[in-house]
Design goal:
Blueprint: H1 3-22, H2 27-34, H3 38-46, H4 53-62, H5 66-72, H6 79-87
Length: 102
């Protein structure tokens, strides 16, 4: 795992733990609300890398932070991918000789 990924995983774990505590919820009540095991809640709050993406998304939804994740995965925000795609654009475009209008 990349070092940056491990750091973000620990920050995510800290967020999950603090969000739960700030709401005054126990780990068991979060497990019940999300319909997951208590062990999964504990592992997520420790920052273990084996948590499923779907489970993480349900945590974010519970803590009303799912929109922040949507911003992260927005393809229009992929600056490197956009730059690479722009480099591959043709320098010139010729008009097609045949009609593609159906």
């Amino acid at each position: 795992m990349f070092e940056e990924s491990e750091e973000q995983l620990q920050k995510t774990a800290t967020f999950l733990r603090l969000a739960r505590k700030r709401r005054g919820w126990t780990q068991q009540s979060v497990a019940n609300r999300l319909q997951i095991s208590l062990d999964t809640v504990k592992r997520a709050e420790r920052g273990e890398p084996g948590i499923k993406t779907g489970t993480l998304l349900t945590f974010l939804a519970l803590y009303q932070r799912l929109n922040a994740f949507a911003d992260v995965i927005d393809p229009d925000q992929d600056c490197i991918g956009i730059s690479l795609a722009n480099e591959r654009l043709p320098k010139r475009v010729r008009e097609q000789k045949y009609d593609r209008d159906f």
